Amino acid sequence: MKPKFLLMRTALAAMFGATVLMSSPVAHAERLKDIASIQGVRQNQLIGYGLVVGLDGSGDQTTQTPFTVQSVVSMLQSLGVNVPPGTSLQLKNVAAVVVTTSLPAFAQPGQTLDVTVSSMGNAKSLRGGTLLMTPLKGADGQIYGIAQGNVLVGGVGAAASGSKAQVNHLSVGRISAGATVERAVPTTLGQGEAVYLELNDTDFSTASRVVEAVNRRFGAETAAAQDGRVIRVRAPVGSDERVAFLGALESLQVTPAQMSAKVILNARTGSVVMNQAVTLDSCAVSHGNLSVVINTTPAVSQPGPFSGGQTVVTQTSQIEIQKEPGQVLMLKGGTSLADVVKALNAIGATPQDLLAILQAMKAAGSLRAELEII
Fold first, then answer.
1. What is the DSSP letter of 22?
2. What percent of the chain is modeled with pLDDT above 70?
3. What distance in Å separates the CA atoms of residue 108 and residue 255, rounded to the nearest whole number?
4. Alpha helices in 103-238 (DSSP H)
5. Structure pTM?
6. CA distance 36 to 124
7. Fewer CB within 10 Å: N-end or C-end of the chain?
8. 129: closest CA among 179, 55, 49, 59?
9. Other C-beta atoms within 10 Å of 90: how many?
10. pLDDT tens track for 301-313
């Protein structure tokens, strides 16, 4: 067996062993700000095109990136320098780049932002370069910031033994506080008599719990759910009172409803993650020399005569997993996905086998969970 499969299988076994211990999840209260956001309080993406100069011969090769030459000619003309027509510019110290950043909510002119500078052409490295003044535009085409400064490419170096292996992309760098906000984004937060909360995940149970918690804290009819995601909350009209109200609202403790069962598979690495114990129905799966058979039978428990108890019907399950003739692993008790995965790893199934078996169980309707492959 390959060492990487052995390590991955060991990690999976440990992970699912912990999942078995947590098969009965306990709900904990969360701050409202961790499970919801206020409508209108958001970031805005900004982008700009610019030039990085001062590179040590590691810039774009102008024969393959003509837009770099055109950008340099346009920049020189804006500075009053006219390049004679037909002049062949050999620019080894210049690179065309895209500058990106996010404009936070309520940002005002004069504030600074960190920016990311990424090469557009075939520059070998941006290390040591300087970004020239670059306008940053929003989706509406308006300029909201100006970026300029020295580009820092972090994580570059050689190992102590003299290895030249790089530990970062040389064509991407950052400029700390490299952009200045020039225009504020209008906000409607202070308008109207209500604000709107948006849950991070649509869930009707969590929305109703948020409404109950808000009304319990601030009075009846303060909050009302519009759907499974948006909640309307009455707020003070004055800006100072509204800010204080929203601060108290975000700190409110709410116990979110238990999320639906979900299994995430990483087809490239073989990693499997589940958010809770997942039950399985009866099924039989054959994959190569592996076979999985799950039998679920009802078990009836009746109380004694005149005891006043009730008849209870439970599901007793048996899992049979076989890799080779004569090698069978039996598990009894409640059938859960954690049990199946743990048993598969115990007999040496590879992560690829596990992915194929889980997909087959989902297709057959035995796996009662949302299956997501990334």
1. T
2. 71
3. 35
4. 204-218
5. 0.68
6. 43
7. N
8. 55
9. 9
10. 566 665 555 655 4
Tell me the residue range of the domain where 63 lies: 44-155+166-181
Encoded tokens for 72? 């340099």
> For 333, phi and psi rounded to 5 degrees?
115, -165
Interatomic CA distance for residues 135 and 145, integer angstroms: 6
More confident residue, 90 or 80: 80
Task: Provide Rg for the chain, Cα atoms.
Answer: 30
Are 91 and 119 in the same domain?
yes
Q: What span, in angstroms and rounded, lies between the C-alpha atoms of 250 and 180?
A: 29
Inside any domain, residue 186: no
Distance separating alpha carbons of residues 121 and 97, to the nearest angstrom? 8
Express each pLDDT in 257-289 by its tens digit: 887 888 887 777 767 777 766 777 777 767 666
Q: Is residue 161 part of a domain?
A: no
The whole-number average pLDDT for the span 46-67 is 90
- Which residue among 254, 278, 299 closes a domain? 254
Per-residue burial over 202-229, b if 16 or more Cβ lie within 10 Å, else e, is ebeebbebbbebbeeebeeebbebeeeb
Q: Smallest Cα–Cα separation from 94: which of 136, 143, 137, 151? A: 151
What whole-number distance in Å separates Cα of residue 225 and Cα of residue 211? 7
CA dihedral (234, 238, 239, 245) positive or negative: negative
The β-bridge relationship of strands 370-373 and 262-265 is parallel
CB 185 within 8 A of CB 177: no
Sequence letter at residue 92: K
Residues 6+ apart with CB under 8 A from 182: 109, 143, 144, 145, 146
Residue 123 resides in a domain: yes
Per-position DSSP letters for 75-109, written without gaps between them: HHHHTT-PPPTT-----SS-EEEEEEEEE-TT--T
Q: Is 121 helix (H, G, I), strand (E, B) or coil?
A: coil
Same domain, 222 and 311: no
Number of domains in the chain: 3
Point out the domain boundary residue: 227, 254, 281: 254
